[in-house]
Amino acid sequence: MAVASTETTTLNNVEAVRQTLYEALKSDPRTLVLGEDVGARGNVFLITKGFIEEFGAERVIDTPLAEASIVGIAIGMAMEGLRPIAEIQFADFIYPAFNQIVGEAAKTRYRSNGDYTCPLVIRTPYGGGIRGALSHSVSIEALFYHVPGLKIVAPSFPADIKGLLNAAIEDPDPVLFLEHKKTYRSVKGEVPTGHYTIPIGKADVKKAGTQLTVVSYGLYVHQALDAAQQLEAEGHSVEVIDLRSIRPMDRTTILESVRKTRKLLIIHEDNKFGGIGAEISAMVVEDAFFDLDAPIRRLCGPDVPAMGYALTLEEEFMIPTSRMAEAMRDLVAF
Amino acid sequence: MAKAIDTPALERHGLSDEQLRAMLRNMIVQRTVDNRGFQLNRQGKIPFATGSEGHEGIHAGAAQAFHRGKDVLAPYYRDIGLCLGIGMPPLDALLSMFARAADISGGRQFPNHYTNKKLGMLSVSSIIAAQCTHAVGVAYAFKLRKEHDRAVLCTFGDGATSEGEWHESVNFAAIHKLPVVFLCENNEWAISTPREHQMAIKDIIAKAEGYGLPGVKVDGSDPIAVYAVVNAALERARAGEGPTLVEAKCYRFLSHTTDDDDRTYRTREEIERHRYLDPVPRFEKLLLEQGIVSADDIAALKKEVLAEVNAVTDEAEALPYPEPAELYANVYEGTHEPWL
Q1: For strand A238-242 and strand A245-247, is the pairing parallel, antiparallel, or unpaired?
Q2: Is residue A230 part of a domain?
């Protein structure tokens, strides 16, 4: 991690995305953003507000409502030497682009044996807890993390967002960049000024501890940290790892932590079956089975197609901090 | 009753004798390489081949209009002649058939799914119309960088025009007046599905009107006519006047691939009825009648091409497969640690 400056500013997550994109467009003429309503409207979360005035409509492209070609056109631009940053307005709308992401972007380098590359970023807001109902709340990471050739990052602290978004833009391969909507304005933090990157594929221990390892990402990292503080007050030491990158995944940090604490709790919003936690769990069982003092536990979204619009249905889907604390207590006591 | 071969009066559209002979050679190389693929498959030497018989006129004509070193081609899997025509050596076609390590894709891709960045050929996908979006992205880069001497030639079959990505590509290119030519090689068949089950219209160019770009229909078995139309469309694209949809009508004389059996869905009579469209004898006849080549020239050319294709067949066959460890290369930049 190359940090250019020790000075920091306080930003929320939406500002961190915005500032990083702005600086990329300012410093590298090969970059451009394309997506639905990114121009005059400045994106539905105002992430690209003012960009079209500063960088022009040729580099801040309001696309037609057609997700497959947003990604496909960006692939062509990337193959021709540009650094496109495509936006899918909500992760729920990414399905029409599945072919282009999985069938094309992830295979461009591989099928041409390196003759062509696809340095492309696809940003998309995901996740629930914002009354987004069936089609503005989903988590999509498990649909894509099966795919070699893709990288997937899901940072949820402003400083991580800046470092990983810079890394994604500079990466020579396609990166799916997931931004949890509920953290957009609810999470603030200190962000180093100046340019820096955080390597894709490195998790971060957000809180050190000795009795239990919690692995999470996205919104739930913040809740897991709150829950771990409660346990701390109760005299228990919980380590919280923010995955930050889903593919490639940081096996070393997870395994080192589990070997130390001997217990593992995985928390994610996406549903349990075939989710990210399934892979982490399998990996830990394969590589560190004899270091475990308790069965691995996964606390995940329920196995239903989506969260409902009604507050009661949304609340039933989302995991409250109290349930995370309860699961931590159970495991610590095991 | 089969129609007789009917040659149009010679309208050169600026093509020299030398260029016309080069186009004939391109068509004969294409047919010879194509036949070689089917032969090798029937001999059990390669698992699969795709033919392009009937498309030679489109390929030879369009390739003449392509500016090497400037333009980019976004081809599909039936474009062997077009790829040869813009400079791909016949050896590359055979390396692809034999899936040898020396193939640019390192023996990964299906036959006819070429890639060649040096020649400006995008990597071919089997996913129909996926390349149309890429072609548009490349054209956007040309426009953004103000590279006004460059255009993209994007090719696909009639079935591709049913895909959403095709429509999205044409729409976007028209909105931004991008330097791209969409060339539809309409051979009337999408594997076993005839055009009338693919669309309710007879001419694919009718789809252009809805997107606000010109559509031009051309006889795909007449390479000179194809050259004229594609050349004009590429010139128009380079001049910043926007995209064109060209529909070159032809007929697919072979099964879709060596794994297909077209006797299950079309009659031999139908194929024979279309023989008069076969671009190779038709172009030979035209050049003979015009005195641009002699019968001896054609015989010598065929002999020479066959010798060359035999030589590259032997050369490719003798080369090794990729090392098994190559499976793990080029997943990402640098070393990829597989999750084993």
Answers
A1: unpaired
A2: yes
Identify whether residues A188 and A215 lie together within a single domain: no
Determine which of B95, B163, B165, B182 to mutate to test the interface with A (most A C-beta atoms within 10 Å).
B165
- Other CB atoms within a 10 A radius of the CB of residue B104 amount to 23
**Residues B126, A103 contacting (CB under 8 angstroms):** no
- Decide if A146 is catalytic: no
DSSP A204-223: EEEE--SSEEEEE-THHHHH
Can you give the CATH number for the domain in which A117 is found?
3.40.50.970
Positive or negative, the Cα torsion across B94, B96, B99, B105? Answer: positive
User: Based on the domain organization, do A155 and A29 belong to the same domain?
Assistant: yes
Residue at A198 is within a domain? no
The CATH number of the domain holding residue A240 is 3.40.50.920
Res A266 pLDDT > 80: yes
Residue B334 pLDDT grade (very low, low, confident, very high; cuts 50, 70, 90): confident
b/e code B212-248 from CB counts within 10 Å (16+ = b): ebbbbbbbbbbbbbbbbbbbbbbebbbeeebbbbbbb
Nearest CA in chain A to B106: A113
Percent of chain A predicted with pLDDT > 70: 99
Q: Identify the closest residue of chain A to B115 by CA–CA distance.
A: A112
B211 reaches A (C-beta below 8 A)? no
pLDDT score of A271:
96
Q: Do residues A105 and A25 share a domain? A: yes
CB of B137 within 8 Å of a chain A CB? The answer is yes
Q: Are A305 and A325 in contact (CB under 8 A)?
A: no
Could you tell me how many residues make up chain A? Answer: 334
Q: How confident is the model at residue B339 (pLDDT cuts 50, 70, 90)?
A: low
CA closest to B127 among chain A residues: A103
Compare CB distances from B140 to A77, A108, A114 and report the shortest one's residue. Answer: A77
Confidence band of A315 (pLDDT split at 50, 70, 90):
very high
pTM over 0.90, yes/no = yes
What pLDDT is stored for residue B1 in this prediction? 47
- CB-nearest partner of A76 from B117, B133, B168: B133
Range(s) of the domain holding residue A289 = 204-333
A125 - beta bridge partners? A179
- Chain A interface includes B163 (CB < 8 A): no
Q: Would A197 be classed as within a structural domain?
A: no
Split into its structural domains, chain A has a count of: 2
Pair (A221, A180) in one structural domain: no
Residue pairs between chains A and B whose CB atoms are closer than 8 Å:
140
Q: What is the pLDDT of residue A111?
A: 97
Last residue of a domain, one of A192, A223, A255: A192
Query: Is there a single domain that holds both residue A228 and residue A177?
Result: no
Mean pLDDT calculated for residue range B43-55 = 95
| A143 lies in the same domain as A225 | no
Mean pLDDT within B267-284: 95
| pLDDT category of residue A2 using cuts at 50, 70 and 90 | low
- Quote the pLDDT of residue A19: 98
Q: Which residues of B touch A119 (CB under 8 A)?
A: none
Closest approach of chain A CAs to the CA of B183, in angstroms? 18
User: Hunting for tokens 């159970």 — which residue is that?
Assistant: A330
**Token duo for residue A316:** 């039933």
Task: With respect to residue A259, please indicate whether it lies within any of the assigned structural domains.
Answer: yes
DSSP letter (8 states) at residue B54: T
A171 and A213 inside one domain: no
- Please name the residues between 242 and 271 in chain B that touch chain A, using a CB distance below 8 Å: none
List of domains in chain B: 17-320 (3.40.50.970)
Do A297 and A153 share a domain, yes or no?
no
Last residue of a domain, one of A158, A192, A226: A192
Cβ of A76 within 8 Å of Cβ of B332? The answer is: no
Least CB–CB distance from A172: residue in B141, B333, B336: B333
> How do residues A168-209 score in pLDDT, each as one tens digit?
999 999 999 999 999 999 999 999 999 999 999 999 999 999
